[in-house]
Give the backbone structure.
Amino acid sequence: MKKSLLSLVGAGPGDPELITLKAINTIKKADVILYDALANESLLEYASPEAIKKFVGKRYGCHALSQQEINHVILEYAFSHGHVVRLKGGDPFVFGRAQEEIDAARNAGIEVEVIPGISSAIAVPASQMIPLTCRGINESFWVTTGTTQAGEISKDIHLAAQSSATVIILMAMSKLEAIMDIFAAHGKNETPVAIIQDGTTDKEKIVIGKVRDIAFKAQYAGLGNPAIIMVGEVVRLHPSQIAKHGSVNTNVFNNLFIEK
C-alpha cells in the first residue's frame, strides 16, 4: 500500500512558467491531482499519464465542490491511491483555505507538506510594472480579501483606507463600488486605482482610474473575476501613467502628478 501524503502546491498567478521547480517535481510524483479553477490546466502536462486529475474548482461564482466535499475527496484519494497533490492558484496560504485541508488530513493521520507558490497579489502588479513599494512613496502594503466568511466587507479595508500603504484587494469585484466608497470616505477620492483581470495570462486586462471613477471604468470595460484591485500612489508608476507625465523622480512625485 502506498504511503498517504497530501502536498499543497502553489500553482502561481496564472502564467504556467511562473511556478517553482519544486512544484513541478511534486506534480510529477503525484498519484492524484486535485486542481482549482485558478490553476493553469497546462500544468497538468507535468503529471504522470497514470495520475488521476480531478477538477475541484473554487472561486467566486465557480464551486464544483464545497470545501467539506473537497476535504472528503482528499482523504478518500490519499487512502486509496497514496500521494495527493492539491494544486492551488497563487500560494496555498494566501486566501487558499489551505489550513482547512491541512487540518482534515492531519486529523485523519495523513502526512502534509506545503510547496509555496507565487501569489497573484505580488506577481500581477509586477507583470504590469507597478511596484508594491517604492522609496519616497510608501513604506508598506496590505493584502486583504474583499469579503469575510459572512459575505461582509472586511473591517481591515476600513483600516487600510486610512493608511498610505498600497492596498491589494483580492476576490472583491462584487463589492468594488462599496469598497471604493470606504476609501472615498477617508479622503482618497483622487487616489489612483488599478484593476487587473486574468493577470500574467494572455487574457490579461487592466483598467486604471481613481477611487472616484474606477467602478464606472471597470463596468464599462466589462471587468470581472478573477481580478485584483490595487489602490495606492504607486499605481502612478504604471508605464501608461508615466507616458502621460514623463519620467518619475520620487522626490518630486506628489508635485509631478498634481492635476491642473
Remarks:
- The first strand starts at residue 5 and ends at 10.
